[in-house]
Amino acid sequence: xxxxxxxxxxxHNSLTELSGGKLVKPYECPERMDHILKEIxxxxxxxxxxxxxxxxxxxxxxxDKQYVKFLESAWSEWTKENxxxxxxxxxxxxxxxxxxxxxxxxxxxxxxxxxANETSISEGTIEGAYESIKVVLTxxxxxxxxxxxxxxxxxxGHHASTDQYGGYCFFNNIAIAAEKLLExxxxxxxxxxxxxxxxxxxxxxxxxxxxxxxxxxxxxxNDAFPHFLGYKNEKGIHEGLGFNLNYPLPIGTSYAxxxxxxxxxxxxxxxxxxxxxxxxxGVDTFENDPISFFKLKSDDFFDVGRKISxxxxxxxxxxxxxxxIKEIGKNTVNILKGFEE
Length: 341
Ligand code: SP5
Ligand code: ZN
Description:
By secondary structure, the protein is an alpha/beta fold. Helix content is 34%, strand content 13%. An eight-stranded parallel β-sheet has the order 4-1-5-10-9-6-7-8, with helices on both faces.
């Protein structure tokens, strides 16, 4: 399997994450990629290719124009205020306020466009985020001639909604890839999200639509980030009713339990019969992940890939989360090798 990867992801390199009331080094860090690349080479998964030049206007099929403009100017607007740290919002249009007004002031705008403030914006964040889109678009292009491909995206994307960033995500890479495939003639796309966290952004983007089915297996939002979306009763609206499916699972879920949901979602893929299958692939379901609570073991990831491969549908794997840095390469490549077996 070929991997698409941009070394320029390092342009996004925030030094702070607000976690447990402290500013710590972000869990989502550039070294994650080094470990994955090393394992891809060591186990000879296939060639690693740089992204080709891409028309980025397709992002407006997914994201709001004003939101993109905000991301482009956020860092310079922030530094103009002479703040000493990275850009982190402190105020939101919460339930007791007016959520429709977009302030002029950068602190106001951060609150308007941010859904979770563990995600600091710093110099180069937007440039790094654009690299991730180039990676996923190049991979989507190549899916024409390959039956599977790995978009090694960083930063991740599935928490980014039409007009909000957070959860380490700025642009919704997998949603943009889905739009690209539809533009190229696909009629139906299935997005299966196996990251530990609910893909709230992807769900929101396609919630009213029947041409993109979204299914997600994740930590119950009662207990897990992003807390405010990802419940079982969210099934889509209008045209989209019946094309959104959530599998929230409890603290301590083992592979035996988790994989029942995978089997069920695979049946849904068969029924939907899409032209392409897009996997939001996080390996933060791993037992030793520092911010998650499932109990999947490294060997279980082979089985995940194997099961997905039985569908025999062109499959685009898109990297999302995974924060057990030492094992992230092994776990990621286990899924991809399992698929190739
Ligand atoms: C792409 C992705 O995986 N994003 C995840 C973002 C999660 N951010 C906040 C998580 C807060 C978890 N707090 C748990 C502390 C456990 N010691
Ligand atoms: Zn995650």
